[in-house]
Design brief:
This protein has helices at 9-31, 45-52, 82-91, 110-124, 179-182, 198-206, and strands spanning 2-6, 34-38, 64-68, 70-72, 134-137, 162-167, 172-177, 187-192, 226-232. It is of the alpha/beta class. The protein has one domain (2-232): Rossmann fold (3-Layer(aba) Sandwich), CATH 3.40.50. The strands form 2 sheets. A 6-stranded parallel sheet has the order 1-9-8-5-2-3, with helices on one face. Strand 2, helix 2 and strand 3 form a beta-alpha-beta unit.
Length: 241
Amino acid sequence: MNVLIYNTQSELFEDLVEYIVKIANQSIKEKDCFNFVLTGGNSPKALYEMLATTYKDKIDWTKVYFFFGDERNVAPNHESYNGLMAKNAILAPLNISEDHIFYVDTTLEPEKAAIEYHKAITNHFDGGDLVFDLILLGMGDDAHTASLFPGTSILKNREVEIDSVYVEKLSTYRISFTAPLINKAKNIAFLVFGTGKAEAVKHVIEDQQKNTDLYPTQLINPIDGNVTWFLDHEAAGLLNN
């Protein structure tokens, strides 16, 4: 685990963009493509916009495939749909080909949407191991990541797959990568900032005794990959080191 702490969000974003560019170009050099899993919410919007503008010439975008680590059970044109934010911030500005974007089909029932998303990803990997080059993740102040929320059924799922999960505190379903699928990635990057995340960050990174039901992000421990935390000084404020 690599923990990087920044004085400002702008410094954090700049370093994270450079990190993404490096992994993208390395993947393209090695196997002529880059499989990149995006995170949702508002936190990464500025990051995506940087990739689509200042850094747009740093990557051969025709060789990048985009996926979503989780999705909300809303219509694809709903403002809360993660795919729509990504489309507006990075995918449309870069004119990414539709066959390089793997959206979650939320016109289906959640369970069916999860099954079909898993099928689409499996087809992309030609039936081989589902190993992504980079999975970008955020974390909530309740220590959830993707849609792995505290106390939910998906936390017990040991399969490398996509699953649907009912999040009681939000009174809604979500579609999400399972922890075992995330843990197969070559690289995982957490983007976390703000004082509201500090307590969760401390528990996830420093607790010796794990409680993954309460702090689901503790489940993220790649089998043969790297984890890097990109934190601002506020989110890192309670860390001992």
